[in-house]
Amino acid sequence: MIEPVKPPKSLMSAAGRAIGDFSMIREGDRVLLGLSGGKDSLSLLHVLIALQKKAPIRFELAAATVDPQAPDFDPSPLKAYMAELGVPYFYESQAIVEQAKKTLQEGDSFCAFCSRMRRGILYRTARENGYNVLALAQHLDDAAETFLMSTFFGGKLRTMQAHYLNDKGDIRVIRPFTYARERQTAAFAKNSELPVIPENCPACFGMPTERMHMKTLLAELEKDNSKVFSSILTALKPLLRAGVPG
Q1: Do the Cβ atoms of 163 and 29 come closer than 8 Å?
Q2: Going from the N-terminus, what domains does the chain have, and what CATH number goes with each?
Q3: What pLDDT score does 208 carry?
Q4: Looking at residue 114, what is its pLDDT?
Q5: Residue in 103, 115, 29 with CA at minimum distance from that of residue 68
Q6: How far apart are the first and last CA of the chain?
Q7: Which of 150, 141, 104 minimizes the C-alpha distance to 218?
Q8: What pLDDT is recorded for position 201?
């Protein structure tokens, strides 16, 4: 067995505030973490383990990985790591890449297809094993980028919700890193030598995307205004809160 890594106070504080503000984890919840193997989901794994030990409420924690069977992406080393941590773990392998090649038409988004497929598999895994909450590791940078993409290209004021009920109404989806920055998870993963799986999104290797353009734009803005993400978070609060289950 290996001991979980203690996350830095700043990351724990960001996650704790978001969980409290949006009422994400409740007494008796059974939480399933979507573990891709990237820096963000591995960081959230250790944050949730630490919170489980110190939180005033009791909740169960497990993790699930979806292997899309891409030639350049192999999350299987996570199996041994999770066994050593002693966290209940589910590994689902499905030929998502091959399905996409057969299904998608020219111009369709592989990333959107893969995301839908993976989310569906995570929902199924949660249902089959009695987990009522699905935790995802998107952070404030992701929310800001999504907001700008939706505004610029979709003409809608939308972003990732911090806490919502899925369409079937049986699983709550939470994003405990809603207040956390990507640089925080990157630093934690690097300093703690977490076993990050490289090339986390096999569809987009080396390809410029709208999201990358937004990331670059925000980075340039932050150079001149260190409070830009704080301002964005304030503006996004109503959108993040929309749909929080009672």
Answers
A1: no
A2: 9-241 (3.40.50.620)
A3: 47
A4: 79
A5: 115
A6: 39
A7: 141
A8: 55
Q: What are the average pLDDT values for consecutive 10-residue runs of the chain, which has 246 residues?
A: 94 97 97 96 98 94 93 90 97 83 67 83 97 98 94 92 96 98 98 88 54 92 95 94 86
Spell out the alpha helix ranges (H) of 86-205. Answer: 96-103, 110-128, 140-149, 182-191
Task: Tell me the C-alpha distance between 226 and 91, whole Å.
Answer: 40
Residue indicated by tokens 């150079």: 223
DSSP codes of every residue in the chain = --PPPPPPHHHHHHHHHHHHHTT-S-TT-EEEEE--SSHHHHHHHHHHHHHHHH-SS--EEEEEEEE---TT---TTHHHHHHHHT--EEEEE--HHHHHHHHPPTT--HHHHHHHHHHHHHHHHHHHTT--EEE----HHHHHHHHHHIIIII-------SEEE-TTSS-EEE-TTTT--HHHHHHHHHHTT--PPS-S-GGGTT---HHHHHHHHHHHHHHH-TTHHHHHHHHHHHHHHTT---
